[in-house]
Amino acid sequence: MAALAAFGVDELIARRHRIKTLLIALAGALIVAAAGHQAFIELKFVAGAPHNQAWAWASIAWSAGVVAVIAFASALRSPRARAVLLAGMLCTDVVAMFVTPQLSAPRSAKLDTAAINFLQAHLGDYRFYTLGPIQPNYGSYWQLAELDVNDLPVPKAFSTYITTKLDQNANPLIFAGNPASPSGPTAMQEFATNFPVYEAAGVKYLVVPSGAALAKLPASERLVRVYSDPVVQVYRLPHPAALVSSPTPGCSVASYTLSSAKVSCSTPGVIIRRELSMPGWSASVSGRSTTVGTYEKVFQTVAVPAGVSTVTFSFAPPHTNIALAAFVLAVLALLATVFRRRLRPSVARSVRAGHGSHFGPAIRPRAARP
Question: How far apart are CA 289 and CA 282, in angstroms?
Fold first, then answer.
C-alpha cells in the first residue's frame, strides 16, 4: 500500500493527472465502498474479535471520507491544490492503515515456556516431532533439535526422506503436521504407520496440542505422556535411536558429543551419525581423514577400525577455498583502485608545474630562432 501511495504522490507532483483520471478513480472508490456492504455481512464469521461491529462501521465511514476527499479534489480548479489535497489524503490513509492494526497488539505478554523448559531439560541429543504447539524452526531458537521444518531451501535428500519414509501426505517444504491433501491420511495417522522410522530418526518426544487424540499403536510401541498443560502434551517414544550408534556386532559407542564420538570395536565396523549427509561434511578417525558415507540416503556413516577410535566431524561449505581466493582478489582489486585514484591528482599537479611525470623530466621544445 505504501508503494502504491508513493506512485500516486509522484503522479500528483509531476502533474500528469487529469480530471478524467480523477473521475475514474472516484468511480472505483465508489465501487469499493459498495463492496463494503458485502464485507460487512462477513463480520459474523469473525469470531472473538472485540467491538467488530464498531470497527466495521468505522471502516465504512473512513472509506466514505476518502471518496468525499477525492470528489472534492476533482472539483478544484487549481492543479496545485488538487495535488496537495490528494497527496495529503494518500499519506494519511497509508499511515492510518498501518497504525490501526497495531491497536489490537497486546500491551504486554508473558511467555509460557514451561513445555520448552521441559524439553531443554530432558531432550538431550535426541529430537522432538511436533504437530502444532511448537512451530517449525523455533526449535533452533530454543536450541532444541526438531524434526519438523518450514524453511527454504530444503535439501532434496531430506525432502525425499520425508515423503517416502515419514509422511507420504506431507509437503516437504512445510513439514509441520499439515497434510498436503485433505483427502489423504493425517500426520498423526502417518506417525502411527511409520512409528519405527521416527524412532530411527532419533525422535524421543512427540509434541501435540492438549486434548489431541493419538492414533492407535501396538502395545510394544506405547507412548508415555511425560508432560501436560492446557496447551501442550508431550509423549515419550520408547526406543529412540541415539545421535551416534553402530549396527556392527562387537562395536559400541562409548561416548559422543555433537561433533565427535569415541568408539570401541572388536572388529572393523561402521558408525551411524543421525545428521544430514551432504557435501561439505568431513571426518577423521584418530586424526586420519576419512570419507563420510550415506546411510538410508539421508544420515552419515563412517568406517572405523578395530580397537578404540575417536571420530571427529566438521563442516565447511563446498568450494570454500575458491570463494576465499576470489575474496582476496576482490580486496586487492579494490585497494589497487584506491591507490590509483590517489596517485592521479599528484601526477596531474606535477605535469602542470612543469616537472614532468613521475616517469622522468618533461621535454620542452626549443624556442624558434628569429
Answer: 8
Are 150 and 137 in contact by the 8 Å Cβ rule? The answer is yes
The H helix count followed by the E strand count for the chain is 10, 15
By CB neighbour count within 10 A (0-12 exposed, 13-18 middle, 19+ buried), where does 304 fall? Answer: buried
Asked whether the bond before 79 is cis by omega within 30 degrees of 0, the reply is no
Give the closest residue to 115 by CA, choosing from 129, 132, 131, 134: 134
Tell me whether strands 232-236 and 224-228 are parallel, antiparallel or unpaired: antiparallel
Dump pLDDT digits (tens) for 223-280. 999 999 999 999 999 999 999 999 999 999 999 999 999 999 999 999 999 999 999 9
| CA-based torsion, 329, 332, 334, 337: positive or negative | negative
Burial of 84 (0-12, 13-18, 19+ CB in 10 A): middle
Beta strands in 33-93 (DSSP E): none
What is the spatial order of strands in the sheet that 293-295 belongs to?
244-245, 269-276, 299-304, 293-295
| Closest listed residue to residue 308, CA positions, set 250, 241, 257, 242 | 250
The span from the first CA to the last CA of the chain, in angstroms, equals 81
| Confidence class for position 5, pLDDT limits 50, 70, 90 | low
Q: Which residues lie below 8 Å from residue 325, measured CB to CB, with a gap of 6+? A: none
Q: Is the pLDDT of residue 350 over 70?
A: no
Backbone angles phi, psi at 86, to 5 degrees: -70, -40
Distance CA 67, CA 349 (A): 65
Rounded-to-integer distance, Cα 67 and Cα 32, Å: 10
> In which residue are the cell numbers 463494503 written?
36
* Assessment of whether the complete model's pTM goes beyond 0.70: no
pLDDT digits (tens, 9 = 90+) for 44-69: 565 556 676 777 778 878 888 888 88
Least Cα distance to 202 among 315, 295, 304 occurs for 295
Helix H or strand E segment including 138? helix 138-141
Task: Give the C-alpha separation, 129 to 147, whole Å.
Answer: 5
Distance (Å, rounded) from C-alpha 163 to C-alpha 180? 11
- Percent of the chain whose predicted confidence (pLDDT) is above 90: 49
Determine the 3-state secondary structure of 334 from DSSP: helix
